[in-house]
## 1
Amino acid sequence: MYRFTLPRDLYHGKGALEALKNFKGKKAIVCIGGGSMKKFGFLDRAVSYLEEAGMEVKVAQVMLDFEPDWIVAMGGGSPIDAAKAMWIKYEYPDVTFEDMCKVFGLPELRKKAHFCAISSTSGTATEVTAFSIITDYAKGIKYPIADFEITPDVAIVDPDLAETMPKKLVAHTGMDAITHAIEAYVSTANCDYTDPLALHAIKMIQNDLVDSYNGDLAKRDSMHNAQCLAGMAFSNALLGIVHSMAHKTGAAFADYGAHIIHGAANAMYLPKVIAFNAKDETAAKRYGVIADFMGLGGDTTDEKIKLLIDYLRKMNDDLNIPHCIKNYGADSYPTDQGFVPEEVFLERLPEIAKNAIGDACTGSNPRQPSQEEMEKLLKACYYDTEVDF
Ligand SMILES: [Zn+2]
């Protein structure tokens, strides 16, 4: 038996934020991250819509005292993910972080509050997913919390919010989204319910991402839907080792002054992982289907996979994302000598490889890497060398 879970309601299209006017409840808390939701006026609008719905509204950080029956999380992936973790804590104050990280092991939520997520970026799709990524800065590791309990009750996918994204964020979140769709499509947990969502998202991202990056706002609106469809796919089909590697390298070199931003990490690792996974016959066929769906040409499966890899690498170039960690600058742009020194990378490699194998996303990858293979794969992602193993 398989489970396919999505938010009960999804409001989309320009101005969808207004859906908050029709929420039923007594008290709502609005959680935001940095300042952009406030700066661009979306916070004020959300608060006034909820007040119009007859609710008492407070903004962030007072959840336990305030006892809300609605948690409304707005912003990029991180603040919404943090609000998901706060929601678990609010429902079960004694739960520990370790408890939360047990995959599909959360207790039943919604005893105290329902959850609405409103994304301002077009990548993580956390507004529709069963995931929350929490970074442990002390350990330099990102942990996914995974459980359908934290799939939001309501998602609001309003492209007005995404139009405020700076260019670099458009690039990174967009490559995150195409990685979600491709990993979901070849995941061992793929099914007839997730495949069409993944393929359609891939096609939309192929059509829209680079133009969105170059300032086409209609395409940016479309990307906001595309990333959400990719999210619906991967929340139910799960992901693969591109994400395992991105999770475990993202903060691993923070002591050298920067993070490898999630979407950029995915963009660099995805072509390498496709080459690695393509040794699995079923995965190879599925990559071929993706290439066909994108209209990339090629006669044999091998040719199709090569064309897919080339296409994705070209997207990195168009979006000013490097191809490997060695060339990843502290500002995320390509540079000759990136911020991760070679000897530091090699010294930390065995530990990072071990952590990546243990990541929650590895289980559904079509090919299970050994420690040695994962180290070789990560090396290929550092030096941008061919994956022929
Ligand atoms: Zn991702």
## 2
Amino acid sequence: MKKLLLSITLSLSALFLSACGADGAEKQTANVEETGVVHEVTIIGYAGKEVEDFRFEPEELAVKQGDKVRLTLESDDEIEHGLTIFGISKQLKQGETLEFIAEEPGEHIGQCSVFCGAGHAVMTFKLTVD
Ligand SMILES: [Cu+2]
């Protein structure tokens, strides 16, 4: 089960990495009308003894295109995490706040970007932009 989950996570990561290739920069500059809605969310990274315990909370966030997203990343322990959201090329370091306008519709998978232990690869986050 652990290997399957890890395999799925890695496959998803590879898929989204390849999907944000050559035209990624072009998508970043798309003009999107801002809605004025702000989603301010603190994401907590949890490490654990078992692979299954590793996670971000919340694990997903759904917004509308043009909404402002303000994400802060924290940890529940001494272990450092990071979050990279593929497809929209957003990186968040622990203790930092990242603010951006959600421009590109779709499901954008995020992945912990700092190796934090056995369950590092299963720490995913999904940003859905409708
Ligand atoms: Cu990690």
## 3
Amino acid sequence: MARYGRPSQRGDYLSPVVLPFPLRVAWAPKTLVRSLRCHHLETGRLAAIFADILAHYGPARIRELGIDLFGGCFSYRRMALHNAWSRHAWGIAIDLDPDRNGLRVDHTRAQFARPEYAAMIDAFEAHGWLSLGRRLDLDWMHFEAGHVMPVRPAATTPVRPAPPGVERRPGSFGF
Ligand SMILES: [Zn+2]
């Protein structure tokens, strides 16, 4: 992760990405997100991913499928199942539609495992952002830059509480 530097609360390494279509905050869907902050090395790729998604689906289908339900990008925190920094801490991960793609939900129930979402996952992967759902069959909400870590969390691993003072957004609680 040397490429991205050290994560910090302030996130000096973040830059805004203007999205080609607005996202809806998953837990407050009347709130629209027209730009978000991610690591400055990934702004171009993230913009390209969402442009590809828009080109493939169009705005109405995006909304109908819930692809626009935003669950968080930058979040200064460690992973829920591992004592390592989450890629959200660098702003190189994004969660979408968290309610229907939970951390421990596998392909039999995850919304994004359905075939109509394959083109969305392809768009992420075409620009080097991988789907934990497709790769590990967990946390289908989560897409991240780079190579997915070979993690197989044990079902008995306790979920670590967030350190005091660290914001925990609803929906962004996994990797
Ligand atoms: Zn995530």
## 4
Amino acid sequence: MEKAEFGKYFTNIFQDGFIMLSIGIGHDLGLFKVMCEAKEPISSEEVAKKLDLKESNTSFDKKWGFSPALFAMGMRSKAVKEAFKKDGPYGISYHDEHASEFLHWLNSYRALMCDETVDKKIIPLLDQQGVVSRLKSGIKVLDLGCGAGNHVTAMAQRFPKSTFIGLDYSEAGIKHGNKHKQEKGLTNVTFTQGDAHNLPDEWAESFDYVFVYDVLHDLPNPHKALGQIYKVLKKDGFFSLIELGFHSNPVDNADDKGAALYYAASTFICLQSSMSGEPHIGYGACWGRESIEKALLDANFKINGKSSLIEIDEEAFFLCTK
Ligand SMILES: C[S@@+](CC[C@H](N)C(=O)[O-])C[C@H]1O[C@@H](n2cnc3c(N)ncnc32)[C@H](O)[C@@H]1O
């Protein structure tokens, strides 16, 4: 790339970062909420008055929920820089004090998107493979790395005859999960703190369906976790995996601004988590669909035909059996 061209490219990144930060401020101040609630166009003066703020001139996409993540990432800057140092820690785990801000954001982001993701994207894909009829009749399900429990509680609501377990490493995640469970009055879901690398032996071959959403690339050893999923899945069980769908070779992502964003975000969150424990494999968010597919096959899973590998926006969906 020529110097001038690189200058333009870099300026673009610089500008986008600042725009994103300002969107985050608007989100946190409640500007979008006021604009969404307004029945007709509303002036910046009126918005400011409603929120008891000084007037500012802003206009944003009202459904945007990603921007406050920048703050959560910004708060980690110091710790991330330490982790880069040779004598610093390997990474930052989701147990760490710096993780709770990100989980808090993830919970609010998922809360915004969860029902649509489950109803319009996940359930139709599961239906194609016969999982929905089993969920309706009543089966045992594990959400591995459930985070704040948004997806598992949404599924538990929709399939009351099935029983669900949400497992996560993070205490903050489990607390959020139990809160969602209480708010929705659910009795068919339980949350437990645990490590995806070491699932209890008494769980062997006990789950009909295991789902893992946006977790595997965060783990210090995803290959070991795949072995554990294999262990706990019944012989006729299903395993669905949602991961980011970028390419494994960074060169193949070179023109993709979405991938650039995730490489950046991963530096603050996913890569930190995946480096935080032994053996520090460190795939991070852009592990990539080609390598993930290979890891699934190496773990002895069958990927149910080409049609089961379907992109959800930037995400890849894999439905597997033993
Ligand atoms: C990006 S979040 C995704 C959470 C949730 N599946 C969702 O989509 O909202 C990744 C989750 O993996 C969890 N996690 C990281 N390492 C783990 C481990 N060793 N065992 C279990 N969970 C882990 C984190 O605590 C975090 O909640």
